[in-house]
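tl;dr need the bound structure. longer version: we got a ligand (6-phosphogluconic acid) that a collaborator sent over and nobodys looked at where it sits. i said id run it. heres the input, straight from their email, havent touched it
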Amino acid sequence: MSSADIGILGLGVMGHNLALNLAGHGFSVVAFDPDEHARERARGDGLNAVASMAGLAGALRTGPRTVLLSVPAGEAVDAALGELSELLEAGDIVIDSGNSHFRDTERRTRDLARKDIRFAGIGVSGGAHGALHGPSIMAGAEASAFDHIAPMLNAIAADFKGEPCCAWMGPGGAGHYVKMVHNGIEYAIMQLIAETWLVLRDVHGLDPKAAARVFADWNKGHLASYLVEITAEVLAMTDRASDRPVVEIIADVAGHKGTGRWTSMATIEAGVAAPTIIAAVNARALSSATQARLAMNGSDRIVAAHGGGSGGDIDDLGKALLCAQVCAYAQGFMLLDSARRDHGWPFELERVAAIWRAGCIIRAWLLEPVMATARNGLGPAGLLATEPTRSMIAEALPGLRATVLAGIAHGVPMPAFTSVMSWVDGFRSANVGASLIQAQRDRFGSHGFERIDRPGQHHLDLKGC
Ligand code: 6PG
C-alpha cells in the first residue's frame, strides 16, 4: 500500500534514529538500507524496512513523495540519487540530511531540477542522541519544498521553550552552509576547551578529576553548554582496564571528517578573518603529525611552576574561555553574514542563533546574548562591537590576556586562545602593520598604495634608492 509519509534511505545510526523520531511523532515511515542487518535492526525497533529502493519508492504516498537520505557525504549521495531519481517523479522531494558540502548540494539541486525533482539539503546537528530525541535543523530548499517538509522537520526537531529548533535558511546550499559554519564553531570551541584542560593540568597542576570539577562548576554559570558539560563528564571517567583516567589512555591524535577544513577554506575564500576556526583545524593536523611530535618531544622543555603566582588564576581561565567562546561565535557569524550577502540567502543571524539553543552540539547559554546582539543589529564588527556581547568580551579580556601569558610562559600549546587574543587586538588597533606591508609591496612590486590624506593610488618615491 502506498501510504508512507516519508522514506528513509540509509539505516546507519543517524538514519535509524531519525526514522524512529519521525515514527514516534506519528508519521508513517518506510525505510531501506542495502545492508540486511541494518534492515533487521530497524524491524526489531518496529520500523517498516523494505528490501529494495524500488520497494521504498513504491510504498510512499504521492503528491509529492518525500525521501530522506541518511548516507555518508560524498559519492554515496550521488550514487543514491542516481538510483532514486529513476524511481521518482516530477514534484517529488529528496532531502539530504548528511554533512554534504554546500557546493555539492547546489550541483545536486540543479541536476535534479532538470527532472523537476526538488532537492533539500538540511544540516542536522546533535549526533545520534539528537537524531532520536530532537536535533537542530538548518534547512536549505526552495520555499515550496520547505513548506511541504516543514511539519515533519518541526515535529522531530529539538524544542527550546516551545519553539522548534528548525528554520529555513534559503534555497540551494544555504542549509548545508550554515551547518558547515556550525561545525567550524564546534571545532573552535572544542579546541579552546582542550587548551583550557592543558592550562588546568600544566599551569595549575590539576589532575583530570579535579579539572572535571572545575568544568562542572563552570557549567552552572555563563559557560553552561553541552560541550563544557560533556568535558566534565569525560574528564571524570576512569578506564576500567588500566584504572587510569580515560583522557590519559586515549591516543593524542584528533580525527576529523572535513567540515572544519571546509569552513576554514570558506573563510579564506570570503576574505573573513576567522583565525580560531583555522587554528582548531591546524591543531588537529598537528596532533596527527606523530612522527614529528615524537622527534621534538621534550626538547627545550619549559619547566612548569605549578600553582605559582605566575600562572594566573582559575577564575581568569574561566573568563578567558567565556571570552574566547564568544569570539568563536563572532567569527562564525561574520562568515555567515558575508555568505548571506554573497549568495543572497535570506536567513537572519538571530534565527540561526535561536535554532542552535537546543539539540545541536554547540548549544550553550551564550547563544542568548548572541541572539540579543544580533537583534540589536550587527555592524561591521559583528558581536565584538554590539551589546550585550561587546561588554562580555571587553570584561573578560584581562582574564584572556592573563591566561595566554601564563600558558605561553609555561610552554602550553594554545593556538586557539592566542588566535583569539590577536584577533581581538587586531580589531582594537588603529594600526595593524598593514601600512608597512603596503610599503613593502610597492617597494618590490610597484603595487601602489592609498594614502590617508589624499585620494588615488600612490607609489613610493624611489629617487636615490
Ligand atoms: C553535529 C556534528 C556532526 C559531526 C561530528 C564529527 O553537529 O552533530 O557536527 O555533524 O559529524 O561532530 O565531526 P568531525 O569528525 O569532523 O570532528
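gonna send this back to them w/ a short note. The first helix runs from residue 13 to 24.
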